[in-house]
Amino acid sequence: MNLESILFTQGFGSRRQCRALIADGRVSVGGTVRTDADADFSIDDSAFGFSVDGVAWPYRERAYLLLNKPAGYECSREPQHHLSVFSLLPPQFAERGVQCVGRLDQDTTGLLLLSDDGKFVHLFTSPKRKVRKVYVATTRHPVDDAQLAALRDGVLLHGEPKPIAAVEAEARGDRQLALTVMEGKYHQVKRMIAAAGNRCEALHRERIGGLALPAALAPGAWQWLDETDLGSLRSG
Ligand code: URA
């Protein structure tokens, strides 16, 4: 693939902008500045990478990302009242069509997946596909056995035809509980906790499928998902 196409597919702007980046000597491959937009490279090797303005980029046919979402960010490219999660990512990702895989509320923190692979996004957001998601909620009132039993047995949410049950519900402390759910309904966890007689004051997603939010990833930081991560995601 030629260098212009490599930059273009990776979200570095229009073809004209990519050619200009290359002509201006801002792109290097293997440590060497390349000013020929038509220079050809084999991108079959998964180790292939390039640098733009000294920042290294791997070549990825599809982008699979994980973000440790902080509170105060909306999962939208056009946020209404808060900042966009896309402001935490290099602009190349929005440019190449990366979108959130499901949404977290603006005040919810933790594991958010993003991708430009439409099939992947659909697979992990389709209501038909049951994927376990683990949330940790901080509650206003102490968590008790009756609330946990109600969450496990199923609670009726406004507008839903039948009760929704947590796959697992356990106390993590006096005012903390971990809830595993399969669905991804609007404000689901907060509404379930309210229906069980408590109130959710803070919510954090720590796992999707078999993939946990890496403990070392700071709030607001992101990372690529590798094959092992994608395998874990599917295995849960
Ligand atoms: N459930 C909620 O209530 N909010 C979220 O952000 C995610 C799940």
Automatic annotation (TrEMBL):
<dbReference type="InterPro" id="IPR050343">
    <property type="entry name" value="RsuA_PseudoU_synthase"/>
</dbReference>
<feature type="domain" description="Pseudouridine synthase RsuA/RluA-like">
    <location>
        <begin position="64"/>
        <end position="195"/>
    </location>
</feature>
<keyword id="KW-0694">RNA-binding</keyword>
<dbReference type="InterPro" id="IPR020103">
    <property type="entry name" value="PsdUridine_synth_cat_dom_sf"/>
</dbReference>
<dbReference type="InterPro" id="IPR036986">
    <property type="entry name" value="S4_RNA-bd_sf"/>
</dbReference>
<dbReference type="InterPro" id="IPR020094">
    <property type="entry name" value="TruA/RsuA/RluB/E/F_N"/>
</dbReference>
<dbReference type="InterPro" id="IPR006145">
    <property type="entry name" value="PsdUridine_synth_RsuA/RluA"/>
</dbReference>
<comment type="function">
    <text>Responsible for synthesis of pseudouridine from uracil-516 in 16S ribosomal RNA.</text>
</comment>
<dbReference type="InterPro" id="IPR042092">
    <property type="entry name" value="PsdUridine_s_RsuA/RluB/E/F_cat"/>
</dbReference>
<dbReference type="GO" id="GO:0160136">
    <property type="term" value="F:16S rRNA pseudouridine(516) synthase activity"/>
</dbReference>
<protein>
    <recommendedName>
        <fullName>Pseudouridine synthase</fullName>
        <ecNumber>5.4.99.-</ecNumber>
    </recommendedName>
</protein>
<dbReference type="Pfam" id="PF01479">
    <property type="entry name" value="S4"/>
</dbReference>
<comment type="similarity">
    <text>Belongs to the pseudouridine synthase RsuA family.</text>
</comment>
<dbReference type="InterPro" id="IPR018496">
    <property type="entry name" value="PsdUridine_synth_RsuA/RluB_CS"/>
</dbReference>
<dbReference type="InterPro" id="IPR000748">
    <property type="entry name" value="PsdUridine_synth_RsuA/RluB/E/F"/>
</dbReference>
<dbReference type="InterPro" id="IPR002942">
    <property type="entry name" value="S4_RNA-bd"/>
</dbReference>
<feature type="domain" description="RNA-binding S4">
    <location>
        <begin position="3"/>
        <end position="37"/>
    </location>
</feature>
<keyword id="KW-0413">Isomerase</keyword>
<dbReference type="Pfam" id="PF00849">
    <property type="entry name" value="PseudoU_synth_2"/>
</dbReference>
